[in-house]
UniProtKB/TrEMBL annotation:
Organism this protein belongs to: Richelia intracellularis HH01
Keywords assigned: Transferase
Name of the protein in question: Glycosyltransferase PglI
UniProt xrefs under Pfam families: Glycos_transf_2 (PF00535)
Domain Glycosyltransferase 2-like: 13-126
Length: 271
């Protein structure tokens, strides 16, 4: 059942950067359109795809969709930042072009932020699915344990430096909603590469705001041959090196930030 769009419902920007994934993109857009929270804009930033991406986007007769196609491939991080900077909503949520949201994803996370102006981010857990969309129960439980979301209670976490930067519990790129005006998007350097989501978490947690965790799996993260997770594993050495360089850059920035003294102390204890 859809929630009626009303004048008191804050606008949420759903950003979907994409490149040559028209089959999965269709499912991602469909999950955004079917959100019971209706006051949204859906920003699709196409990094010069050569498949049927444009046709797929135009097949949805929904005026909330804003499609941007670059004339040339500008790189993954530049396309991601372009999509985020196009956002005009009070809140912004990133959706991978190969991922899916449950229909009540926004309906459950946005009200949490609306009730507390001291929250910068609200996030949830996620299901892991394969290339065919089938839920991988073992992987789902494993990731919840690895990122320690299985240990978190439904609560506000403040500060959340350890939660966000050490445990990496917040799936910033796929399963969260962020208060847009709290973030200076120009402060995300291109050197972060594929670790842009970790750097975004850093920007969220360095000021005196909180993060709220909802222990429900409202998003579906897809693992397939060409995801960063798979590419940076044993399958692709170059991708693994690229990810490592991006992560090293991020943590060097974190260690130099005087606001993160607690983070530095915790890191030294873990060495």
């Amino acid at each position: 059942m859809l929630i009626n769009t009303g004048k008191y419902q804050s606008l949420v920007s759903v950003v979907i950067p994409t490149y040559n994934r028209c089959y999965y993109l269709k499912q991602a857009i469909d999950s955004a359109i079917k959100q019971t929270y209706q006051n949204i804009e859906i920003i699709v930033s196409d990094n010069c795809s050569i498949d049927d991406t444009q046709e797929i986007v135009e097949s949805f007769p929904d005026p909330r969709i804003k499609y941007w196609q670059h004339n040339e491939n500008i790189g993954m991080i530049a396309n991601q930042l372009h999509a985020l900077k196009m956002a005009r909503g009070k809140y912004v949520a990133s959706l991978h072009d190969d991922d899916i949201w449950e229909c009540d994803f926004l309906a459950k996370l946005v009200p949490i932020l609306e009730k507390d102006d001291n929250l910068v981010i609200a996030f949830c857990d996620q299901l892991i699915i394969n290339s065919e969309g089938i839920i991988d129960t073992i992987a789902t439980e494993r990731y919840s344990r690895i990122y320690q979301r299985s240990l978190l209670e439904e609560a506000t976490y403040k500060p959340f430096i350890e939660l966000g930067l050490i445990n990496k519990s917040i799936p910033t790129a796929a399963a969260c909603v962020i208060r847009r005006d709290f973030i200076d998007w120009d402060k995300i350097p291109t050197e972060v590469g594929g670790m842009w989501d970790l750097y975004l978490t850093y920007l969220c947690c360095i000021d005196d705001y909180g993060a709220f965790y909802l222990p429900q799996r409202l998003a579906k993260y897809r693992e397939h041959l060409y995801t960063d997770t798979m590419q940076s594993g044993r399958r692709n050495a170059e991708a693994k090196i690229r990810k490592a360089k991006s992560e090293i850059f991020c943590y060097q920035q974190f260690m130099e930030d005087k606001k993160l003294k607690v983070f530095i102390l915790i890191s030294k204890k873990n060495i």
